């Protein structure tokens, strides 16, 4: 199935938003063009409604009821509005580091090994700062940044945009990759909170609960979560999830880990290169492209990082010295892996004098945590995270150089929405959460000389001075962040260990740095619930 991997570095020559999707006309060789390219309307660019609003009330909201085709960042609300595709290109470039690092986080941090934590953005309210992320959180942000105030930015209309399907197939792929790494964690076994037309509220839902109204192949019984667990059931798989090519489950999972490291581990790859540590991904067969998948491979034993957020006094100094020495020798930053490049050269080979590490060398991942009531503003809203100065005009924020990530909430007005679940969620003040990784930009700042080191004593004061957040509606209108009751922004960190010949390992233990956000509007202060 075709998909758009918005978290992987695009092929050389392409952009962070695929040019083939972002141009109104494309050239193709058709069966009747005598092997010569002909220009056609791009079916991936937009969908034309024909007729527009065929039945009165089908598109009850404006301006959607006036737009004759799907739009991204529409110029206005009139019937003659145009897409501003450059806005999509710029916004996706601005958000890329956040998307890539977020996917790496939820694939590798042990806090996301359970389906409930990985899958959805409902805030757990368990004082666990390491469970704010989810695939749903990243999914929402991609919607908002590709659509702006257009169709992709509104879940009621998003599926009309052809981009929706490339995006959602990638979410399906990310889930399949996570399943390969966590094969024993899947469905949630708990009571139904709201119920459906066929399930009573409070009834226990398990992996064998009927997924009504979807009949399985027999036509007589319904699909269950157990029945749809594998994409192979539906005769498809992704490049990374072709398990039949490997003789053992262990070799298959090692291949998937190598693929995750190659595609999404850009930040940890840079650290390992600077430290002279070689990852197992350099020597493992990786099922990233069909041409790259091989059936054999060996599993390199990994040593897990020790528990606890604090490291021994020497560990951070050793890492700091390694980084500083590398910077002095003008080491070039390493971008995320590109399909046609040699992964081993990207992550860096150890020097001839280096020996296999017995204890992992550790670096610290810094992350912004955000939680907020989903429906508090009765419409979609976004929390923009900045590192550095930014313009006062909200219209510039989606593509500002200092924008490092966006948290998106698809809120609804309970008085007007036809979404029954949204009405119930609003009544119980449903809280949702998300994460914006900081380490990619902090590493760039260190390499440029704008940050003295990546140790806590340097990073936290820097964040206190330079980290900012603002709230806007989908149309760009700014909302006073202090008036969004329940919004809390915080900074946390966790250690990641790197060993020679292994994969980076997240400790799973987090430290909260309330001194960054304390005393600021919507910022977490010391003593607040985490």
Provide an overview of this structure.
- With 530 residues, the chain is an alpha+beta fold.
- The chain has 12 helices and 14 strands.
- The protein has helices spanning 85-108, 115-119, 135-147, 163-181, 249-264, 266-275, 313-328, 343-347, 420-427, 439-448, 456-466, 514-517, and strands spanning 25-29, 37-41, 190-191, 204-205, 210-215, 222-224, 361-373, 380-387, 403-410, 431-437, 467-473, 478-479, 488-498, 505-512.
- A 4-stranded antiparallel β-sheet has the order 10-7-13-14. A 4-stranded antiparallel β-sheet has the order 9-8-11-12. Strands 1-2 form a two-stranded antiparallel sheet.
- Mean pLDDT is 86; it is low at 288-318 and 324-357.
- One of its GO terms (molecular function) is metal ion binding.
- One of its GO terms (biological process) is melanin biosynthetic process.
- Belongs to the tyrosinase family.
- Keywords: Copper, Melanin biosynthesis, Metal-binding, Monooxygenase, Oxidoreductase.
